[in-house]
Every structure is written in structure tokens, then in C-alpha cells.
Design a protein that fits this description.
Strand 3 and strand 4 form a beta hairpin. This protein is globular. It contains five helices and five strands; from the N terminus they run ααβαββββαα. With about 180 residues, it is α+β, with helices and mostly antiparallel strands. Helix 3 packs across helix 5.
């Protein structure tokens, strides 16, 4: 009986700790995509009721929290852009993605920082690359300007909705 209990306990612990994602830190990811970064200042924002409804309306996606972490990216002399960390539920577990914007509102890159679902549902680098360098006019809609992923449709939808939420936060609050 003890062996069964310990086996189940060990299996549960191992299955919960297997979260896929980027092994790089936020700072490393940002510095690899922006040139001349001298400071990356982490900040937090709490949306007001008005901002919350504006973000939800502009993103055309469900927004479930008013609290977001973002990063102010600066060189010695100027602001280079912002990065917004968005966590969204994919199926039953969350995916946390970092979305970075330059000063013109172009989505410079997206990086999956944590992914609680099985690794086979993580979009590959080629698909993730489609979100790179997307200007502010891109609709970022799966099935329209972003192709779906066979077997990972929910992941693709969650990541693109997160990109729209991050862009709305950038445009309404950070810009």
C-alpha cells in the first residue's frame, strides 16, 4: 500500500512540474531581439474599469484579469519599446507568452515563457515567426491572416488572442 501511495505521489509531482517553455529569462529574450538595450524595467499595471472594457473591445477577445506585468525597454538615451506578459488558459492549463512592441507599435516578437499543456501542443518556431514584425494594422486572427495549426488550434487561438490583448494594452495604456 505504501509503495502505491508513493508511486502515485511521485507521478503527480513529476507530471505537475513538467511545464514546457522558454529556458531563457525575460531579459535574455528581450536583449536578443532589441539592439542597444541598457535597462529592462519590470512594471505592473492594474486596468481601470474603463481601460478593461477598452482593451477587451479593441482586442476582440475575452480579458479575464485587470493585472498585467510589462517591461519598459530602454537604451541609454531613449525608449526602445515595451514587452507585455500575458497568461491565458489554452485547454485546462495556462500558457504565458511575452509580446514585445517597438515604439511604432510593431509586434517585434512573441516568446512562450511557460506552457502547461503537453509539449506537442506548443506551436513550432515557424508558426511563431508569423507573429514577428507584424505592424499595428495586422488583425492577428487565426484563420484569416494567421494560419491554423493542425492539432494545436486552441494553442494558436490562445497565442493570437493574447497578442491582440497585449497590443490593446500597448495602444491604450503604454503608448
Amino acid at each position: 500500500m505504501k509503495k502505491i501511495f508513493f508511486t502515485l505521489l511521485l507521478g503527480t509531482l513529476l507530471s505537475q512540474s513538467s511545464v514546457a517553455g522558454s529556458k531563457a529569462s525575460v531579459d535574455e529574450v528581450i536583449k536578443s531581439s532589441f539592439t542597444g538595450v541598457s535597462t529592462i524595467e519590470p512594471k505592473q499595471i492594474i486596468l481601470t474599469k474603463k481601460q478593461f472594457s477598452q482593451v477587451q473591445s479593441r482586442a476582440k477577445a475575452a480579458v479575464r484579469t485587470k493585472i498585467y506585468r510589462y517591461y519598459d525597454i530602454k537604451s541609454k538615451n531613449e525608449r526602445l519599446g515595451y514587452a507585455v506578459l500575458i497568461s491565458r488558459k489554452v485547454r485546462g492549463k495556462k500558457a504565458t507568452v511575452l509580446y514585445a512592441f517597438d515604439n511604432s507599435g510593431t509586434l517585434k516578437f512573441t516568446e512562450i515563457m511557460a506552457f502547461g499543456e503537453p509539449p506537442e501542443y506548443i506551436p513550432n518556431k515557424t508558426w511563431m515567426g508569423q507573429l514577428q514584425n507584424r505592424d499595428a494594422s495586422a488583425t492577428l486572427t487565426v484563420g484569416k491572416d494567421i494560419p491554423t495549426i493542425s492539432g494545436s488550434t486552441l494553442s494558436a487561438r490562445s497565442i493570437t488572442e493574447g497578442a491582440r490583448v497585449a497590443r490593446a494594452i500597448y495602444e491604450i495604456i503604454l503608448k
